[in-house]
């Protein structure tokens, strides 16, 4: 009689856990890399837009245009600060599952640490790094979107003033 679909043999369960831990570690590490790539793109975007807005600040512009542009610069500055926190290294030295801890060990201690399966600990540590990165990136994107809306308002104010 073959096992039911919900029942797994002990060796198969261990193999499944091994594969799931490996897959989860690879996924979280990949997500951290993707977040850093998105952050780099958004930092460059914010910098270019801030430079353009600051460069046009000395022009004779309508008050609504200046106010909306100024608020856009503030939103982009706040977004940039959040993005810098996203790429700020988070070094957990006491977790025994990452390189900051291993940097404090001598060769024999590292070999002893490698005799234990620390993948679950590594998954926890990487997830604790990834979650704030994603949250900060999400907040920064929302601020950048608000800045784009403010820039559109400023441009519309400029167009309306030019047509009047």
From TrEMBL:
<feature type="domain" description="Pycsar effector protein">
    <location>
        <begin position="21"/>
        <end position="158"/>
    </location>
</feature>
<keyword id="KW-0051">Antiviral defense</keyword>
<protein>
    <submittedName>
        <fullName>Integral membrane plasmid transfer protein</fullName>
    </submittedName>
</protein>
<dbReference type="GO" id="GO:0005886">
    <property type="term" value="C:plasma membrane"/>
</dbReference>
<keyword id="KW-1003">Cell membrane</keyword>
<keyword id="KW-0472">Membrane</keyword>
<dbReference type="GO" id="GO:0000166">
    <property type="term" value="F:nucleotide binding"/>
</dbReference>
<keyword id="KW-0812">Transmembrane</keyword>
<dbReference type="Pfam" id="PF18967">
    <property type="entry name" value="PycTM"/>
</dbReference>
<feature type="transmembrane region" description="Helical">
    <location>
        <begin position="143"/>
        <end position="163"/>
    </location>
</feature>
<feature type="transmembrane region" description="Helical">
    <location>
        <begin position="39"/>
        <end position="55"/>
    </location>
</feature>
<dbReference type="GO" id="GO:0051607">
    <property type="term" value="P:defense response to virus"/>
</dbReference>
<feature type="transmembrane region" description="Helical">
    <location>
        <begin position="61"/>
        <end position="88"/>
    </location>
</feature>
<dbReference type="InterPro" id="IPR043760">
    <property type="entry name" value="PycTM_dom"/>
</dbReference>
<keyword id="KW-1133">Transmembrane helix</keyword>
<keyword id="KW-0547">Nucleotide-binding</keyword>
């Amino acid at each position: 009689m073959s096992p039911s679909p919900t029942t797994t043999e002990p060796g198969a369960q261990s193999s499944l856990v091994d594969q799931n831990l490996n897959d989860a570690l690879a996924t979280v590490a990949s997500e951290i890399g993707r977040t850093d790539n998105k952050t780099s793109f958004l930092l460059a975007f914010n910098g270019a837009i801030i430079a353009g807005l600051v460069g046009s600040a000395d022009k004779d512009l309508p008050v609504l245009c200046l106010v909306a542009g100024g608020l856009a610069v503030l939103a982009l500055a706040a977004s940039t600060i959040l993005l810098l926190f996203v790429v700020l290294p988070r070094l957990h030295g006491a977790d025994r599952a990452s390189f900051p801890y291993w940097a404090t060990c001598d060769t024999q201690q590292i070999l002893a640490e490698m005799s234990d399966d620390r993948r679950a600990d590594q998954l926890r540590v990487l997830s604790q790094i990834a979650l704030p990165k994603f949250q900060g990136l999400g907040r920064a994107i929302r601020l950048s979107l608000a800045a784009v809306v403010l820039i559109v308002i400023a441009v519309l104010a400029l167009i309306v003033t030019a047509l009047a």
